[in-house]
């Protein structure tokens, strides 16, 4: 952020504001961690922000400090719409286009509030009064830490805020293994630990609370793994029937796509997950190196994200979707085999 934006923010927060904080649909660790961390910081400034999520999120994130105060737009629709209508500031975190909020989009588009965006995805839209966008950042949570620092507020970071921000940085960096993890990221994390974030406990809460059903589901996913050696690609399919068999809950397939990248010689991994309720195949793309899954998802599967991590969707069946995917790989063979 520039000095003018910082001055504007300091002036805004000098008096009570009606503030709403919104993450993207199907919020992940970075989305929940950043919204709750920011909300706790704004409370320390004397504000009373409300976090509204478009829909539900995984159980393994529901222990994070402040979770109990989150409003779910799907379940608490009337109250959520009223808060959006009454807000004069709306923060949008971990996304950069209002379409990423699902059914909330139409209400956000007509809101009277000034928008403030904090996000690290590529190609941001221009709806916000203040846009803090940096595609080189590890996570939105690292950006929220910088946001707090720019307002001279790091002395207000409590154990709860530190815990929220640590969750998002840890999950969005793949436990600090992705290339977006910089020395500055580690410095921020060190500061969060100094502020009270218990790194071992946080890791256990997020990653070590599997149900037997989820592990069985992982077995199904790995059994469905297909390796395309000529394209250095691996993909997984999961049907609605397979999900139902093992009592699928939101978040149960989180991280499954990354198993493809653990194979020697594989640089492109994909998972296709059937969602009959929405009538789509949900797709997650991952890569290592220079192959941009963001560009691939944008060009072919109505999606986008980061260079090495992106999402997309298909509105035809699993067979047609995977056939299309395989046919597309022929046009990318040189990029996948540099």
From TrEMBL:
It holds the Pfam family DHHA1. It comes from the Bacteria. GO terms for molecular function: 3'(2'),5'-bisphosphate nucleotidase activity. It is an enzyme of class 3 (hydrolase). Its EC number is 3.1.3.7. Residues 18-169 form the DDH domain. Keywords: Hydrolase. Residues 245-318 form the DHHA1 domain. SUPFAM superfamilies: DHH phosphoesterases. This is Bifunctional oligoribonuclease/PAP phosphatase NrnA. It comes from Croceitalea rosinachiae.
């Amino acid at each position: 952020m520039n000095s003018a934006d910082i001055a504007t923010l300091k002036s805004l927060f000098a008096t009570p504001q009606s503030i709403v904080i919104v993450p993207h649909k199907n919020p992940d660790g970075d989305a929940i961690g950043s919204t709750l961390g920011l909300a706790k910081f704004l409370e320390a400034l004397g504000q009373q922000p409300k976090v509204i999520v478009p829909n539900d999120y995984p159980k393994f994130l529901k222990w994070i400090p402040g979770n109990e105060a989150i409003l779910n737009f799907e379940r608490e629709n009337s109250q959520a719409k009223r808060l959006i209508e009454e807000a004069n500031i709306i923060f949008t975190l971990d996304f950069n286009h209002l379409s990423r909020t699902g059914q909330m989009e139409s209400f956000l588009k007509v809101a009277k509030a000034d928008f403030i965006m904090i996000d690290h995805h590529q190609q941001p839209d221009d709806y916000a009064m203040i846009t803090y966008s940096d595609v080189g950042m590890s996570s939105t949570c690292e950006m929220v830490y910088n946001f707090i620092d720019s307002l001279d507020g790091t002395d207000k970071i409590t154990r709860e805020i530190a815990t929220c921000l640590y969750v998002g940085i840890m999950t969005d960096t793949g436990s600090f293994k992705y290339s977006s993890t910089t020395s500055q990221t580690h410095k921020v994390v060190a500061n969060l630990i100094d502020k009270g974030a218990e790194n071992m406990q946080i890791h256990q809460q997020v990653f070590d609370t599997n149900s037997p059903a989820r592990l069985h589901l992982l077995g199904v996913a790995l059994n469905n793994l297909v390796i395309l050696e000529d394209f250095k690609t691996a993909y997984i399919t999961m049907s609605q029937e397979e999900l139902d068999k093992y009592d699928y809950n939101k978040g149960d397939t989180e991280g499954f796509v990354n198993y493809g990248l653990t194979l020697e010689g594989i640089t492109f991994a994909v998972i296709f997950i059937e969602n009959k309720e929405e009538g789509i195949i949900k797709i997650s793309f991952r890569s290592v190196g220079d192959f941009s899954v963001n560009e691939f998802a944008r060009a072919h599967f109505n999606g986008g994200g980061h260079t090495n991590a992106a999402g997309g969707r298909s509105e035809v069946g699993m067979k047609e979707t995977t056939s299309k995917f395989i046919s597309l790989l022929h046009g990318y063979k040189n990029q996948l085999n540099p």
